[in-house]
Amino acid sequence: MGHSSVIGMDEIVAEFIRRTILKIPVAEIGKILRIWNFIPESQLKTINLKQCKENVSQDVVELCKKKRASMKEAAILDIIYHQTCQIKKIWTVYKMTKAPGEEVDLSDMEEFKDSFKKVLQRALKNVHISFRDSEDTAVWIRIAWGTPYMKPNQYKTTYMVYHSQTPFVFISHCRIKKYIPELWQALMTAGNYHKIQQMELRSLYLDSLKAIVFKQYNQDFQTYCLTSLEEENSEVEIVDPRIIHENMKEKERIQRVTRETFGDYVQPRIEFAQYKLETKFKTDPKNGILAEREEPFRCLVKFSSPHLLEALKSLAPAGIADAPLSSLLTCIPHKAMNYFTIREK
Fold first, then answer.
1. What is the per-residue pLDDT for 241?
2. What's the rounded Cα separation, in Å, for the pair 51 and 34?
3. Among 125, 141, 265, 334, which lies 20 to 30 A Cα-Cα from 228?
4. Exposed (0-12), middle (13-18) or buried (19+): which is 173, by Cβ within 10 Å?
5. What is the pLDDT of residue 292?
6. Closest listed residue to residue 16, CA positions, set 66, 83, 59, 77
7. Residue 337: DSSP 8-state
8. Which positions of the chain have pLDDT values less than 50?
9. GO cellular component terms (predicted)?
10. What pTM was estimated for this model as a whole?
11. Dihedral, 298, 303, 304, 308 alpha carbons, nearest 10
12. C-alpha 240: how far from chain center
């Protein structure tokens, strides 16, 4: 009986590794396997990465079977995949706060990990927790959730990125929300915080979220399709007659205002901003069918772009909008928000 359960576990791990390899872009497979460092380099060289991905995944699984890979190693491979291919999930930013008068906690990351794991495993029986340190003093946490009667489901996971000595945590949730209170408790206990609150800031681009909350907009971080955006902008500049006929003084003013608003650096990458409007209808109280309406008007406006802040930055120089743009649009990185609710003052 014991022997068959071991075989079953091996099959579960093998299938998980196979599926993970199938998710990785072909160009990244070799790199990710080397970072994982579970299969020796001499054996990695035997894998033909030019064959179809299904065959590559089978070859990797066979090598992992020889080394008796466990779910512990498979989970680390999954974390490395998500660290390398970050734009697969929506990340939400949360901010933790200390109790009034409490000093900054100087405990190290190993203490944080131990405490986090103990608190969560004490609260929930079937939960699988994995950690991996990253180069920027952060720890990646992967949690596979089970139920009181079922083992952790390795395909229903939550990913978290926590930077020590900062109040921010970046979380990509799975669809299981019922264990959120236990997750918050583990985070706050491990980090010695009093409260955790969701910020109105989320994106596919983890590096951009970090740049915003740590106020590092002028530093290099992962960007995509920038060249094509610049080419698009230069095309607009040639074609748009409003640009061609602009006088030089106005053009210089627009460039100065744009530089003052956005700076000279590449903007953090946010792909949408949402504005929820809840205001009362303004009208002459004696006239109009809506004059006596007490209920506020509600509407939702959403701006979307592959690179929203760079797109906004290009509007005035392209002659599409006046400079300066509305502060509701330009305040996104400074306020660390891309979800807004506009109410009566």
1. 54
2. 18
3. 334
4. middle
5. 62
6. 77
7. -
8. 1-9, 219-239, 246
9. chromosome, centromeric region; nucleoplasm
10. 0.79
11. -150
12. 36
Q: Residue 100 is encoded by which pair of tokens?
A: 């009034």
Both structure tokens of 187: 């985070």
Q: Which helix (H) or strand (E) holds 131?
A: strand 127-133
What's the burial of 103, exposed, middle or buried (CB within 10 Å: 0-12/13-18/19+)?
exposed
Distance of CA 235 to the CA centre of its chain: 32
Residue 165 has a pLDDT of: 83
- A 10 A CB-CB count for 221 gives 16
**Domains assigned to the chain:** 11-84 (no CATH), 91-99+106-214 (3.30.160), 248-343 (3.10.20.720)
Look up residue 152 and give its DSSP letter: -
Residue 149: the pLDDT is 87
The tokens 């080394």 sit on which residue? 67
Q: Which two tokens stand for residue 234?
A: 């230069």
How is residue 59 written in tokens? 């070859």
- Which pLDDT score, from 0 to 100, does residue 197 have? 94
pLDDT at 57: 95
Tally of CB atoms within 10 A around 4 = 8
d(CA 43, CA 39): 7
DSSP string, 56-88: HHHHHHHHHHHTT--HHHHHHHHHHHHHHSGGG
CA neighbor of 299 nearest in space, from 281, 279, 276, 280? 276
The Cα–Cα gap between 295 and 306 comes to 36
Omega before 241 cis (within 30°)? no
Residues in the chain, how many? 345
